[in-house]
Amino acid sequence: MSCVKGLVESGQLTSVPPQYIFRTNPDQDHLTVTEPEAIPTIDLSLLTTGTPDQRSKVIQDLHHACQDWGFFTVTNHGIPATLQEKMISAIEGFFQLAEEEKREYSGKELFDPIRWGTSFNLEADKVLLWRDYLKIHVHPNFHAPANPSGFREILHEYCIRTRQVASELLKGISKSLGLEENYINKKMEVGSVSHQLFVANLYPPCPQPELAMGLPPHSDHGLLTLLMQNELKGLQIRHDGKWVAVDPLPDAFLVNIGDHMEILTNGKYKSVVHRAVVNGKATRISVGTAHGPPLDSVVSPAPELVAREGQLPAYHGITYKEYLMIQQKNQLNGKSCLDHLRL
């Protein structure tokens, strides 16, 4: 396996190798840069400790963000900026390790505790992606690479903190759906046995960024994904038929609705299609945590929502583990995985 980082650092790269040339769909390649305030922002402190009126307003804002965007920024989340910076630095340290040391984690199986690799799925990808990754299953069983020094401790604290944020957001989302506050947390068993996947992405500078792609258009599995990144932009979301480049706020988290939230809400809150583009200047790092139910849980539309709306279920039920296997063993392609479950 040849990682992109090694390819770039070889010093022999002046153009994008043919196997990395990504041809986009012209119908989906319109790019619009919105003003930062156009993207919904949720002040988590007002949701957790605000007055009743402030809390009610944030819940309304969550409803708007989930229904109209599938995406929002979270501020005042309680995770120290210093911890975020340490996590980014630790990731940089891991990717700086000698390739021989990283190869210890070049597992082939989807549920290997720790996997380091490149592209998305080398067995299925027709075009290679300009991306190296580190994926770690961090909950309910915690795993971490042995090096670099201190990585394990930083990762452990970071994952605990992001699970807490996800749990609070899910309470607000439950309320925004007119459900009891702990409905989603209880139904999806968010807590001691829920699944959390940590994914760090490294996007090295590309000599022809217009020809390559970091991650193609796709939606995420799970209920919510919390994302942070270094100072470089690269995330774009699909909104109102156009690509919107996201300009993240300092110290904030970017949050997107996952496929299993769409299934659970019977399509009321839809997962958002997004992609990662690359640049020719510097290395971009993003750190995502995907929050889902236990792997053996069957996720299907919530009966309370289906009955209240007078609808029929719009999706088949499937275990979270089965869904992950379908998505991760194929090419990333929009919401094609979720489409298999539509009734």
Automatic annotation (TrEMBL):
GO molecular function annotations of the record: metal ion binding; oxidoreductase activity
Domain Fe2OG dioxygenase: from-to ranges: 193-293
Pfam families listed in its UniProt record: 2OG-FeII_Oxy, DIOX_N
Cross-referenced SUPFAM superfamilies: Clavaminate synthase-like (SSF51197)
Keywords: Iron, Metal-binding, Oxidoreductase
InterPro entries: DIOX_N, IPNS-like_FE2OG_OXY, IPNS-like_sf, Oxoglu/Fe-dep_dioxygenase_dom, Plant_2OG-oxidoreductases
Source species, domain of life: Eukaryota
Keyword Metal-binding annotated: yes
Record's keyword annotation contains Metal-binding: yes
PANTHER family: OXOGLUTARATE/IRON-DEPENDENT DIOXYGENASE (PTHR47991)
Family of this protein: Belongs to the iron/ascorbate-dependent oxidoreductase family.
Protein known as: Fe2OG dioxygenase domain-containing protein
